[in-house]
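Okay, is this right?
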Amino acid sequence: MVFIVCAASVTMLASQQPAQEEAVKSRFPSGPGRDALLKVCNDCHGAESAVASFKTHEEWSKTLDEMANNGAQATDDEWTLIQAYLDKNYSFIFVNKADAADLATTLDQPTSAAEAIVKRRADRGAFKTIDDLKSVPGVSGAALDARKDRLIF
């Protein structure tokens, strides 16, 4: 009888693990690098704690170097994917300094909208508010609103 209870408990725990993994994945935007981030970060700590605050590209790079020096295991390709994923989803966005390619990626905007942002900035000067940025033709206001906590003017 005890064996049946233990076997049932093991089966129940095994079936919960994939559901728990999917719940963790759902808290992170999908895209290249997400699974590598979850794999590498979850070996020592939860991925949630790794991305608890936004950082600059350079700060993320330093953090990844520190993780590797402390024993985090990943291939060179995985480190590259993780860096790109963090840059896209968890880095500050320097609206008045970034080039069009960076803006397209970090703001989740079409290339044409990112180029229009850079042109508007060159023609009229620095953006001061999110509303200034939203006024650029072709820019998705919803995508900007989703990233408003990361925008640096």
User: Anything to note?
Assistant: Residues 2-90 form one domain. The chain has a mean pLDDT of 88. The chain has two domains: 2-90, 93-152. The first strand starts at residue 93 and ends at 94.
